[in-house]
Amino acid sequence: MGIKKLLGHKYLFLLVILSTxxxxxxxxxxxxxxxxxxxxxxxxxxxxxxxxxxxLVWFVFFFFSNNGKTSFxxxxxxTFIVCFFYGVLMESLQFLLTSYRSFEWFDVLxxxxxxxxxxxxxxxxxxxxxxxxxxx
Length: 136
Hints:
Residues 42-125 form the VanZ-like domain. By secondary structure, the chain is mostly helical. It has one domain (3-134). It has helices at 3-6, 9-28, 42-64, 72-97, 105-124, 126-134. Helix 2 (9-28) packs antiparallel against helix 3 (42-64) and helix 2 runs parallel beside helix 4 (72-97). It is elongated and about 50 Å long. 20% of the residues are buried.
């Protein structure tokens, strides 16, 4: 399967649905810490990493879909908005729908940090990504 076909809108949409489903499940599921595993702040690191990957997936969807009409900056802005508000939504749903999870501003901060790291990473790769998109 060629890269152009992999970057097709349908495949990118499925990737976005899959990653969003995983974030939703991870946000609302009940987890049990393994015995002896109690590293302070490890959940915040997990939030940061999860939202780093989540933002990358959404960026790829925005940037490579829509027949190439979406610019790099538009894709970055859309990615940030979608991922940030989805993170706040997940924290709110933890408070509203579960008895074992709660809304935490530090989780929102960790999510946002992951998104910002993804944006910085993408900014470093901007020229390569734009060039790759033009050659499709």
